[in-house]
Design brief:
Length: 260
């Protein structure tokens, strides 16, 4: 089987049509016609992940996020971009980004993975926007209780709350990663779960909601923490879809180091 065969199969899982001329889901390095027997999966193609994948014997690496620091991977011309390009070419891996097609699955692959591993009791609700979904809890929880559950079940080192930590509700907007529409989603829901925010905008908006007496909160999970469970789920799905291939998820870790 060739890398392109794998790519075409997982792209076919999307239920929403993606314009192939506008998507960021392209091969970033390597040859799509390369024969593949081992596939590594991760959130980011960090040098450590690439080295681990090569040492494992991978032919291909599938990641969710940009390789070159910009959504369409146009920042190769920077100094560090050129350095990384040389590094990736030397690795021999075929690197493919699986982002738009992942969010276009039904349910959204990233959302499905995050909610599966998070383990909250409730029901999934299709969102109004691309890569934005909703979840209705069976029973009311506070923002602090949800944050603690996230930290424990998704094994995140640091979860932050903007707004009222004691806010209680059932309506959650799952804006995993950085999808946009945060203002309207916060207005329409009790809680907003997201990867990262602009603190002077959505952060201050959440604080004002709280100080003006509204029970609302934004729970910030970190970008990687809010999406990596989806790539872990991709690993599971691909093991079932490609039984003749070896598939392995590689953890890239959070981008921040935390001071005790």
């Amino acid at each position: 089987m060739k890398c392109n065969d794998v790519i075409n199969e997982i792209k076919s899982w999307a239920s929403v049509e993606i314009d192939p001329t506008k998507t960021c889901d392209t091969i970033k390095c390597g040859d799509g016609e390369k024969e593949v027997s081992k596939i590594a999966i991760s959130m980011f193609a960090t040098p450590d992940v690439v080295n681990d994948a090569v040492n494992w014997g991978a032919d291909m690496l599938i990641v969710h996020e940009p390789v070159y620091y910009e959504h369409m991977d146009k920042n190769i011309d920077s100094f560090i971009g050129e350095e990384k390009k040389k590094f990736l070419e030397k690795s021999g891996l075929t690197v493919f980004r699986f982002h738009d097609y992942a969010h276009a699955m039904n349910p959204d692959l990233i959302y499905e993975g995050e909610m599966k591993y998070l383990g909250l009791s409730g029901k999934c609700v299709k969102g109004k926007y691309f890569a934005v979904n909703n979840f209705i809890l069976d029973n009311k929880m506070t923002a602090k209780e949800i944050a603690k559950t996230i930290q424990k079940n998704l094994q995140l080192k640091h979860v932050r709350i903007a707004g009222n930590p004691d806010a209680e509700g059932t309506k959650i907007s799952c804006c995993f990663g950085t999808p946009g529409h945060l203002e309207s989603e916060l207005f329409e829901n009790d809680f907003l779960l997201t990867g990262e925010i602009c603190e002077w905008c959505i952060g201050e908006m959440a604080r004002d909601y709280a100080q003006l007496g509204y029970n609302k909160a934004v729970i910030v999970m970190s970008h990687i923490g809010s999406e990596r469970a989806g790539m872990m789920l991709l690993s599971e799905k691909m093991k079932s879809a490609f039984p003749a291939l070896q598939i392995k998820y590689f953890e890239c870790g959070e981008v921040y180091n935390y001071v005790d």
